[in-house]
Amino acid sequence: MKRHLIQCEPSLIAADWGRFAEEAELCVAAGSEILHLDVMDGHFVPNLTMGPDMVAAVKLAVPQAILDVHLMIYNPDRYIENFVKAGADEITFHLEATEEVEHTIQYIRTCNRSPGIAIRPETSEEILLPYLPLVDKVLVMTVEPGFGGQAFLPKMLTKVERLHKLARQHKLSFAIQVDGGITYETGKKCVEKGATRLVMGSDYFRQKDRRKAVAHYNELRNVAV
Ligand code: DX5
Ligand code: ZN
After folding, report:
1. Which of 9, 118, 144, 171 is the most buried (most CB within 10 A)?
2. Is 1 a residue whose pLDDT tops 70?
C-alpha cells in the first residue's frame, strides 16, 4: 500500500493575528506547502476564530498554498460552499457535529475538494468505519478541540495505530492527520504509528528560524512505520 508523503503543516491559529496574511506568506517562504486553518463557531467548541472571509484573505496572500480547513462547527454542510468559494482545498469536518456525515462528504466531493473527517479524543475510531472508504483523510484530534497550546494526549497514539491497521486491512487510501500538541518528538511518535499529516501550531510559530524548522520537521519523512 502506497505510503503518503509526510506533510508538516502550520496551523495559523498560533500565528500573529495582527499580521495574518503576512504570517501565511512567511510560512510559504519557509517551505510550508499546506496551511491549516482552524474554524471554530463557539458552540461545537468554546472558542471563536475565523470564517470564509479570512480563508479568502489567506488564499489571496498565498494562492500557491494548499489550504486545509478544519471545521470545528455544528452543521458544517451549511457552510461548505462558502469555504469552497473562499478557496479551501481540503475541508475536514467533525463526525460529532452533524447528522449528515455521508451527505457532507459527498457534497465536498461534488465541489471538487478533498473531504476529511475529524474525531474528538473521546470518540472511538470504530464509529468512522462506514465513512473510511469515502474520505481522503481522517483527523485524529490529539488534544480537546478549541485551543492551541495544549499538551499532546499520548493515548491518541493507539487510535492512530488502529486506523492505520484498518487502512491496511481494508486496503483504504485515507491519510491519517494529527492535530494538537504536535512537535518534532510527538510528531515522530505519531508517524511511527502511521500518521502522515502533522498539524503544528505553537511549536511551529515559536521557531526563530522557520526555514530550518520546516527542514527539521521534514526529516520525519525518513521515519519508518
Ligand atoms: C485545536 C486546534 C489546535 C491547533 C494546533 O482545536 O486545532 O490543535 O490546530 O495547535 P497546537 O499545535 O498549538 O496544539
Ligand atoms: Zn485543527
Report:
1. 9
2. no
